[in-house]
Write a structure and sequence with these properties.
Strand content: 15-25%
Helix content: 40-55%
Distance between the termini: 55 Å
Structural class: alpha+beta
CATH superfamily of the largest domain: Jelly Rolls
CATH topology of the largest domain: Jelly Rolls
Shape: globular
Number of domains: 3
Radius of gyration: 22 Å
CATH architecture of the largest domain: Sandwich
């Protein structure tokens, strides 16, 4: 929902996570708490913070670029600032955090307690924020699977570093057998024309999302999102060679609703644009 103090925003919506980049004008906000965990990272310089209060944590210091705060679900807060700031807000569904905690560390729901945090700095959080921001800049060029893979890394890091009870990684009892792997590959090839989600691929594999990403990369040498993109560009090459479809039609047939984005993906993977690829084919 657009707030009057937010003059500009761009959003990535994922299952269990919303990433929102916004520009906020000076204001004072008293926050009663909400049903999501919130992490807000400052992207700009020149912050003039008067107060940040989250639960019992409080700071009157200005923030520096890259610093962040965490407000757990249902925890109240108070913010007041005199600057116009660009920030990246992560809104995390507690159910997603709980599910991941159980999958990777065997924690029960009552053990997942995210800690109130103010004026923190973390190189891993900053690096992930940079990658999410790049996705916002390119309108999600990496695709759904890429963004969901980032989300998995982000949530596991929060569990390891910012929870009252830190999960111990469980021995990996999951296995991606050759038969299951082939079923996943067949599924991907059958649905290259539509967005594919991590949840559905891990369900086909019969293992958790976290371990699916790790085991798929061990088996194939590349991450699931990289494999999907690779296969889409290979199909695009085949469709271009057939000469029966327009570029707009081919983009849709390989799961890309934006033709210019398809052309960028194609050039990055093949080395030339689709039009140059076609012209080279016609000279053969």
């Amino acid at each position: 929902m657009k707030k009057s103090w937010i003059s500009e925003r761009r959003t990535i919506q994922l299952p269990g996570l919303t990433v929102d980049r916004h520009l906020s004008a000076p204001n004072e906000l008293e926050f009663p708490g909400c049903d999501r965990h919130l992490l807000c990272l400052l992207l700009s310089d020149g912050n003039q913070q008067k107060i940040t209060r989250i639960g019992s944590q409080e700071s009157g210091k200005s923030q520096v670029k890259g610093s962040f705060w965490i407000c757990p679900a249902r925890v109240s807060g108070l913010w007041a600032w005199n600057s116009t700031d660009r920030s990246l807000m992560f809104a995390i569904d507690p159910l997603k955090l709980n599910q991941t905690a159980f999958e990777v560390g065997g924690l029960n729901t009552n053990q997942v307690e995210l800690l109130s945090t103010v004026n923190a700095n973390d190189s891993q959080i900053a690096a992930l924020a940079h990658l999410f921001q790049a996705e916002l800049e390119t309108s999600g060029m990496g695709g759904q699977l890429y963004a969901e893979s980032l989300m998995q890394v982000f949530i596991v890091h929060l569990l390891r570093q910012y929870c009252a009870f830190k999960p111990k990684m469980q021995p990996n009892c999951d296995e991606l057998t050759a038969r299951r792997l082939q079923q996943v590959l067949d599924y991907i090839h059958s649905y290259l024309e539509r967005p594919l989600q991590l949840a559905e691929l891990s369900e086909v594999a019969g293992i958790s999302q976290y371990y699916f990403c790790r085991l798929f990369k061990q088996s194939m040498g590349i991450a699931p999102y990289q494999y999907v993109l690779q296969q889409r560009m290979e199909r695009a090459k085949d469709l271009l060679r057939q000469g029966k479809y327009t570029l707009a039609e081919i983009a849709l047939l390989v799961g890309c609703t934006d033709q210019s984005r398809f052309a960028k993906h194609f050039k990055k993977y093949v080395g030339v644009t689709p039009r140059v690829f076609l012209s080279k084919k016609s000279l053969q």
